Amino acid sequence: MRAAVLHEIGQEKLEVLDDVEAVGFGPGKVRLRIRATGLCHSDVSAMSGVLPQPAPFIPGHEGAGEVLDVGDGVTGLSAGDRVLVCWLPACGACPSCKRGQTHLCLAGFMNAGTPNFKRSGGDVFGFAGTGTFTEEVVVGAGCAVPIPDDVPFEIAALIGCGVTTGLGAAINTARVEAGSSVAVIGCGGVGISTIQGARVQGAAQIVAVDPVASRREAALRFGATEAVSPDEFADAKHRVTAGEGFDYVFEVVGKSATARTAYEHTRRGGTLCIVGAGAMDDNFQVNMFELFFDEKRILPSMYGGGDVLRSYERAIALWRAGRIDLESMITHRVRLDGINDALDQMRTGESLRTCIEL
């Protein structure tokens, strides 16, 4: 089958091959035919080495498709079912799951160390234990979440990661209050979803911050009340909040420099929400006096900070009701052969989300 493979960490291009085989099918597993997958910035971060991932590997974790076959012991799924890929399934038995923090379950991360593809030259890993830049993939049954018939595959794919992450940061983690002031740094697919989440929550002012003009323009269409470049952010803070700082600031870039900027633009007693996934050697620093004196809440948000299955249902309900716009987030569509062009468009900020149709 065909798949896009990164041979070594640090390479910028993927090679589309036709000699890849999905492996590992058996009890508790399902085989999926991927129909659509989104290109998420986490895929690029794994390719560059910012996020840890063994190579060679197939990127992609934001996918949707159909069940081809189910292994022994799998219940609730059958061939032909339409599903989205959950890259962080909950085991239901670990301490995090028992506490109700299913998004912190480590079972899914354990899958990332087991190859689920192979070629004649050896094993190939799937990013985050999935790997959706391929025609077929074998995953644990918990990774395949049924979707209603009225949800297109490309919409379901976005809900599988970026939309859930952004909406959840505003709704689950920060719990944005109606009438509040919000700033969002980084307006790619996750940042746009965060803006939409803040709008759903009733924020009065939503300032989008991004260096790319087209993304600032897009942010306004999705609910931002104004959009500024990073150089204009300080001025926006003074205009919108009289210099006090925003009630909520979301960092959706994954860098300590922008996290520090976000901290400085958060009001005393306000909330800084870290949404971007960054490198292990990039340290965010605050001094002990300001940490105590300003009493700003620093809240990391992983995968939307809540039960992902409930978050999927909520995203679908909001989409059906017209409260969030997911179709317009897909700015580019390509076939698998166009994957490297899509990567370039993401790196330059030209695209919000690219849908890869398989």
Question: Briefly, what is this?
Answer:
The protein has 358 residues and is of the alpha/beta class.
Structure explained in plain terms:
The protein has 358 residues and is α/β, with parallel strands linked by helices. It has helices spanning 41-48, 95-98, 107-111, 153-159, 162-173, 189-201, 213-221, 233-241, 256-264, 288-294, 308-320, 339-348, and strands at residues 3-5, 15-17, 21-22, 29-38, 57-58, 62-70, 82-85, 117-119, 122-126, 136-140, 144-146, 181-185, 205-209, 226-228, 246-251, 266-274, 297-300, 330-335, 353-357. The strands form 4 sheets. Strands 4, 6, 7, 10, 11, 18 and 19 form a 7-stranded mixed beta sheet that branches. A 6-stranded parallel beta sheet has the order 14-13-12-15-16-17, sandwiched between helices. It has a 4-stranded mixed beta sheet with strand order 3-8-9-5, with no helix packed on it. It is globular, with a radius of gyration of 20 Å. 52% of the residues are buried.
Topology diagram in text:
Elements: E1 3-5, E2 15-17, E3 21-22, E4 29-38, H1 41-48, E5 57-58, E6 62-70, E7 82-85, H2 95-98, H3 107-111, E8 117-119, E9 122-126, E10 136-140, E11 144-146, H4 153-159, H5 162-173, E12 181-185, H6 189-201, E13 205-209, H7 213-221, E14 226-228, H8 233-241, E15 246-251, H9 256-264, E16 266-274, H10 288-294, E17 297-300, H11 308-320, E18 330-335, H12 339-348, E19 353-357
Parallel strand pairs: 5-9, 12-13, 12-15, 13-14, 15-16, 16-17, 18-19
Antiparallel strand pairs: 1-2, 3-8, 4-6, 4-10, 4-19, 6-7, 7-11, 8-9
